[in-house]
């Protein structure tokens, strides 16, 4: 880890190696970075925000509790949208970002649906989700006409802000104001109205740069990556008759269970679902793997399940894997068919050429038929034309 960090810092030109007296290797900080680091650590330099001083008291001021609730609600809307909850709606910009990040997939005329990467994303803690999401946003920033340096600077400035304080939007560029509206939708800042002259950074924004997951908000997915039965994470009972009992009121957790099972009944504090061949194969068709389903059930196991070994009935885990294998029995490869060869020699010459190029998919020497890949078709075709001209 140390060597990797040293390599990254050297790659960013933040320092460079230099031999010290006695032949030892040392590192010298980049002078520009050194001066700015000293300013940041000692509290010097020009203040980046007036902390609302020129705006006066806010009649609609928000306390820390309300900011935390707002951030949680906004972030949960994104998670609910990913699992297909009908009550969750996001902007077209955000939906496109989820598709670009590979968390959801969109087909013509159909609403976006969650992918394997998206399901894995939901198993992360909130801090990790936020980092991944922000990095994906930054990758698309320049294509949106935004200044990447300006956006990064603002994100790091937010990490130095004070929770519960309001800050002025005066002096922000149009690009930064657009970015602020996106942060508002993500739950990283609170702004009462789009045209409001002040905003409040939430805990999500302040902890983003620090990577401190311990101080992040608690959301229904905050502990999905925890060990089985830890804390209040265990709520699922799986029976050998393929029934699932989920003891939870969380709409998000229920929606996650519904991704790979059929909902049968819903009561206060508990839902009953059935794992079926159709429901599992539908989940697999959407990109969710059998291993991810089993991992989810295992990490969400109710304390009652933890008393037995193994946690999950082997008949259930084995059957889920078998249902996945059913879909893997056939593999489809696009290609171009070559047939109607005049002689066996012609067939063998072209087949050997395709094989040497690594583009031969299938061949039947008895019937003089072969299939090559789409990318290899043009090369094989050119070779065959040259071959015929030499005959």
Question: Can you put this structure into words, describing what you see?
Answer:
This protein is of the alpha+beta class and 391 residues long. It has four domains: 2-42, no CATH class; 64-215, no CATH class; 236-327, no CATH class; 335-389, Alpha-Beta Plaits. The chain has helices at residues 2-11, 31-42, 64-82, 92-100, 116-122, 126-141, 148-159, 174-186, 203-206, 251-258, 277-285, 290-299, 303-306, 314-327, 344-357, 374-389, and strands at 15-19, 25-29, 104-105, 113-114, 167-168, 189-190, 198-201, 236-238, 243-246, 262-267, 270-274, 335-338, 360-364, 369-373. The strands form five sheets. It has a four-stranded antiparallel β-sheet, with helices on one face. Helix 11 crosses helix 14, helix 12 packs antiparallel against helix 14 (314-327) and helix 15 (344-357) packs across helix 16 (374-389).
Which stretches of 5+ consecutive residues score pLDDT under 50? 220-232
Overall number of domains? 4
Rounded mean pLDDT score: 86
What structural category characterises the helix and strand content?
alpha+beta
**Shape descriptor:** extended
Would you count the extended β strands for me? 14
N/C terminus separation: 63 Å
Please report the number of helical segments: 16
Helix content: 40-55%
* Order of the strands making up the biggest sheet: 8-9-11-10
Order of helices and strands: HEEHHHEEHHHEHEEHEEHEEHHHHEHEEH
* Rg, Cα atoms, Å: 28 Å
Oligomer status:
single chain
Outline the biggest β-sheet. 4 strands, antiparallel
How large is the share of residues in beta strands? 5-15%
């Amino acid at each position: 880890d140390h060597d990797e960090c040293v390599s990254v810092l050297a790659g960013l030109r933040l320092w460079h190696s230099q031999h010290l007296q006695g032949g030892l290797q040392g590192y010298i900080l980049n002078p520009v970075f050194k001066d700015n680091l000293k300013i940041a650590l000692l509290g010097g330099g020009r203040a980046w925000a007036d902390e609302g001083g020129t705006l006066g008291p806010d009649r609609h001021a928000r306390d820390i509790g309300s900011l935390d609730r707002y951030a949680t609600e906004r972030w949960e809307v994104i998670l609910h949208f990913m699992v297909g909850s009908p009550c969750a709606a996001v902007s077209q910009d955000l939906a496109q970002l989820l598709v670009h990040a590979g968390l959801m997939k969109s087909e013509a005329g159909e609403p976006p649906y969650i992918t394997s990467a998206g399901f894995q994303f939901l198993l992360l803690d909130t801090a990790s989700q936020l980092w991944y999401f922000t990095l994906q946003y930054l990758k698309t920033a320049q294509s949106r006409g935004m200044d990447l340096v300006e956006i990064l600077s603002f994100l790091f400035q937010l990490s130095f802000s004070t929770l519960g304080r309001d800050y002025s939007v005066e002096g922000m560029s149009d690009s930064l104001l657009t970015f602020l509206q996106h942060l508002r939708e993500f739950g990283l800042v609170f702004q009462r109205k789009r045209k409001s002259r002040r905003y409040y950074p939430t805990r999500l924004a302040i902890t983003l740069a620090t990577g401190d997951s311990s101080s992040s908000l608690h959301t229904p997915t905050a502990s999905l990556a925890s060990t089985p039965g830890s804390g209040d994470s265990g709520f699922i009972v799986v029976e050998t008759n393929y029934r699932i009992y989920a003891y939870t009121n969380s709409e998000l957790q229920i929606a996650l269970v519904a991704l790979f099972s059929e909902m049968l009944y819903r009561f206060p504090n508990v839902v009953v679902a059935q794992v079926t061949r159709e429901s599992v194969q539908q989940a697999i068709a959407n990109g969710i793997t059998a291993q991810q389903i089993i991992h989810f059930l295992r990490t969400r196991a109710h304390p009652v399940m933890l008393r037995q070994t193994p946690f999950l009935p082997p008949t259930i885990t084995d059957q889920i894997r078998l249902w996945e294998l059913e879909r893997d029995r056939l593999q489809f490869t696009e290609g171009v068919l070559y047939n109607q060869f005049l002689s066996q020699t012609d067939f063998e010459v072209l087949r050997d050429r395709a094989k040497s190029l690594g583009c031969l998919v299938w061949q039947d020497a008895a019937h003089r038929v072969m299939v090559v890949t789409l990318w290899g078709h043009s090369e094989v075709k050119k070779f065959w034309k040259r071959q015929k001209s030499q005959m």
